Fold this protein.
Amino acid sequence: MNTSLRVLIVDDSEDDVLLMVRALRCQGYHPDFERVYTISALKATLINNKWDLIITDHAMPELNSNDVLRTAKQLCHDTPVIIVSGMIPEATAIAAMKAGAQDYIMKDNMVRLIPAIERELNEARSRAARKRAEKALSYLTFHDALTDLVNRSGLERRMQRALNLCQERNQHHVFLYIDLDQFKIINDTVGHIAGDEMIKQLARELKYHLRESDTLARLGGDEFGVLLENCDHSHAKEITQNLLKLILEFRFNWQGKIYQVSASIGFVEIKGESINNVDDVLGAADVACYTAKNQGGNRIKEYHKNDSDMAKHYGEMQWVCVINQALEENRFSMYVQGIFPASGNAQRLQYGEFLLRLIQEDGRVQCAGDFIPAAERYNLMPKIDRWVVGEVFSYLAVLLTDNKIANNARYFINISGASLSDSLFYTFIREKLKTYQIPPGIICFEVTETAAIAHLHDAVEFINQIKSLGCHFALDDFGAGLSSFTYLRTIPVDFIKIDGAFVTHMREQPMDRAIIESINQIGHIAGMQTIAEFVENEETKLLLRHIGVDFVQGYGLDHPQPLAVNSTALSVVY
């Protein structure tokens, strides 16, 4: 070992200091040390220097260990303090430990010094790592992980402040809701990695062309919000037109090909008492943006409460009709994607997640992300959730009859936040388990973290009911809401599915990797198993295995397959 160590020694005996320094050198440390023995010198060196460790005598002519502990706590509270004394009453030593000392050692038993130092240095490093992760998590509570822009929560906080100023100081603000047109084409043709890169580049361009006082936020996959504070209507309109032009002229180069998009922008004035709360602003902007998109996109639509065309679009969300018709005509379909042990264990586990798809009349397959937001907005999810559970249980019943399900199987089924609050949904599941004679232990329901937190009381009650049947439960997209660890004490789940946004960029983003490590560690402490989503290559899988994540899932391991293609899909794939 050849380790440098910055150590502050508070001791009035120069001989004792030299003995401690010699002991450190004998163990391979290269101590850079300073000796002080007055309170003024102690304060000066703590203010002007950073120390890895403080070693202090207990009783000295001008100060004692209590003075050192109190001063260290004020000026460098994370630095470990070890008391090394020739004589210290046991009661005093115990009181010092309660006050923050990491250990106390008698000078006639110096053999304990080096092990104590090594232990506390390791603890200090662990504390520093946890503090960095906590700081990153706190930052991400109000910021988007991909673009580093303010996220929806951060925008809502700033918008509430702007609303307060609007009423208190009669200020005038404008909010813009920007939804990119044709962005889905890029994701579908060249993949999500390219889509993410385009979003990052476009975010930088937008931010560069806004005022320093403006707030640019990422609200969703291809949606941005802009809060123009203290900005009159004419100036805001000019800024909005410039942003629309910028987006249309933006060119994205990916692997030698050029891609472009346009945007639909909803424009909402915030003045006087015309709009009273954040939800009203966001709702009005959403309606205006949706109207702009339905009128062909690449345009600005200003919100007017009495606009009949806008009211029409607000009440005629196209997806509502599509979803209802698909339910009536049985045009939903279930796919399945494997979930695998990150350890690479040869044991064949039948772990998989059922994924919902909608088949359009022309045969196009729509992923759940395309229509679920509309279904959630218009309260169609309880009906969809019932269809999914019935379809999955029916399929599993066939496999059970054919003895094609292993005892260690686990099948994940997504449900919505709305169903958590549906008092009849639990009864529906219980009856379907009985009807199809499904062993409850092979079923794991999952709900997103944000949905569970939004319906916290109902979620806890529902999960407890489901687990009483013998089923399991998973918390999906964990880390997205970043409320986050606090709720693990409250929500009794068996699995945590780590938000894929962190997994996708963990190789090049140390912060994302640190967040995954924190989620994995705390999940294990809470007695839960962890699953990493969006694993697209072997390198990411190996990193997750090194961290200690239990399971992995993603296109790099298995693509979702329709059940209709092969009735034995589950038993064959896994």
